[in-house]
Amino acid sequence: MKRSERLVAMTHYFLENPKTLSSLPYFVEEYDAAKSSISEDIDIIDDMFQKMGIGELRTVAGAAGGVQYIPDLSIERAHTTVEKLIDLLEDPSRILPGGYVYMSDLLGHPKYVHEIGQVFASAFEHTEIDYVVTVATKGIPLAYAIAQVIGVPVVIIRRDPKVTEGSTVSINYVSGSSRKIQTMVLAKRSIEEGSNVFIVDDFMKAGGTIQGMKSLMREFNANVKGIGVLAEAEDEEEDRKVQDYISLIKFMEVDETKETIKVEKGNFFSS
């Protein structure tokens, strides 16, 4: 195998296996190359990853060591991604009756969702995460995008139990938008006790749903290491139940009469 071919193959391997520790002998055997050549290849790929602002290759010394790809995203690329989202979301045609904003097309587009997942994952590159947790339904694409980048499973909290999930744990919580008592449910075998989780949701007003997810995680003795929301509503800040979170965008104003939407960058860029 030529070096150019080997570099492509190894780059693909690292991108497909984030945070997986792989030994140098594995690459030596897989690509039938000398250890010194593999080491040089790793240096080349690491240098390119850092120049592109998408992460780094980290070497772990020792008999049980090896090399692993640590996903990251440069702040410049994060700014570009969010600025693009703001341009799309400020389109007046997205205004729905009641002052809501149509976002389903973005949450259903693989390119945008993947870029959003990269931004969120970069905020927790040095944090040990075992699961990405969300509540059905609109947060699911975001959860899978983040989980793919950092290489962990997704856990989906339901509004009602499913017979296919076996025994469950349920809690009641106060919805931030409707102020009504609602229920969320999670199968007992979904999360191992003592796990580290990252909670994600597509939109936050008062934060009742996220507070409910945090309460449910306590039932599993899980450690909430981070909370991420794609968008938050500026006018709900005073009544917000959740404070320790990061957001990518903030809706400052949605005016049905004037047909205007004002969106700013979230606290991700100020934290």
Automatic annotation (TrEMBL):
A matching Pfam family: PuR_N
SUPFAM superfamilies: PRTase-like (SSF53271), Winged helix' DNA-binding domain (SSF46785)
Domain Phosphoribosyltransferase: 105-244
Coiled coil spans: none
Keyword line: DNA-binding, Transcription, Transcription regulation
Keyword hit for Transcription regulation: yes
Keyword NAD: no
NCBIfam families reported in the protein's UniProt record: purR_Bsub
Family of the protein in this entry: Belongs to the purine/pyrimidine phosphoribosyltransferase family. PurR subfamily.
Protein name (Swiss-Prot/TrEMBL): Purine operon repressor, PurR
Organism of provenance: Piscibacillus halophilus
